[in-house]
């Protein structure tokens, strides 16, 4: 096994465990996996893709905002900007703007079902103020999925799917039902997404 992957996995494990048990030290461990991704990127002989770098940095900022209950909206905005930069990064690696309709249909359908499900629960919980921000966020995530599918690269596709899954579970955990296993899955899928997308954009 690649030593970097082993170390990254250990950092993810520490982040998840402290999130679920020793919350006082969780703020220290939470950003470490992303910082390692950035370190590995800068150790390469070629300067990292600037659009990808911006996407990861906004994700890191979002991580820090989400450490506070009051930081949900700023954190959501940070991740939204990160997703937008990911879309730009994918677009810069592809020619033209034509997309196979199946990619668009699949991404839109899944995103629509996710939005309807979350919106219904937001209405029940009397948290309608979050509906518009989440609609915007899901729309951008759908674009990310479409561009990742268009790349036809396994790393990009699986990374984008993990990112979308992590985003959905984060919303589920905050607005619908909070459980330890959902919280753990949010972190694991998020870190996996960032790792896979880093492999795609820095190879």
Task: Outline the structure in words.
- The chain has helices spanning 3-20, 26-29, 32-43, 50-65, 72-92, 101-124, 131-151, 154-175, 180-202.
- The protein has 203 residues and is mostly helical.
- It has one domain.
- Helix 1 (3-20) packs antiparallel against helix 3 (32-43).
- The chain is globular, with a radius of gyration of 17 Å.
| Beta-strand segment tally | 0
User: Structural class of the secondary elements?
Assistant: mainly alpha
Low-confidence stretches: none
For the biggest sheet, the summary is: none
Please tell me how large the radius of gyration is: 17 Å
How widely separated are the two ends? Answer: 18 Å
Key descriptive features of the protein:
single chain; 203 residues; mainly alpha; globular
Topology:
Layout: H1 3-20, H2 26-29, H3 32-43, H4 50-65, H5 72-92, H6 101-124, H7 131-151, H8 154-175, H9 180-202
Quick recap:
With 203 residues, the protein is mainly alpha-helical. The protein is built from 9 helices and no strands.
């Amino acid at each position: 096994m690649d030593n970097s992957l082993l170390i990254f996995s250990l950092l993810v494990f520490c982040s998840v465990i402290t999130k679920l048990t020793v919350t006082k030290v969780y703020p220290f461990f939470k950003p470490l996996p992303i910082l390692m991704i950035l370190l590995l990127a800068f150790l390469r002989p070629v300067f990292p893709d600037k659009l990808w770098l911006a996407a990861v940095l906004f994700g890191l900022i979002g991580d820090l905002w989400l450490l506070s209950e009051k930081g949900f909206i700023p954190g959501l905005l940070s991740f939204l900007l990160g997703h937008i930069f990911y879309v730009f990064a994918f677009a810069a690696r592809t020619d033209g703007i034509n997309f196979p309709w199946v990619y668009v249909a699949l991404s839109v359908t899944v995103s629509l079902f996710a939005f309807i499900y979350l919106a219904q629960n937001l209405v029940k919980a009397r948290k309608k103020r979050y509906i518009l921000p989440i609609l915007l966020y899901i729309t951008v995530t759908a674009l990310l999925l479409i561009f990742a599918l268009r790349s036809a690269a396994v790393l990009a596709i699986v990374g984008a799917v993990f990112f979308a899954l992590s985003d959905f579970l984060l919303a589920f955990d905050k607005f619908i039902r909070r459980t330890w296993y959902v919280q753990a899955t949010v972190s694991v899928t998020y870190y996996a997404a960032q790792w896979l997308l880093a492999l795609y954009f820095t190879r």
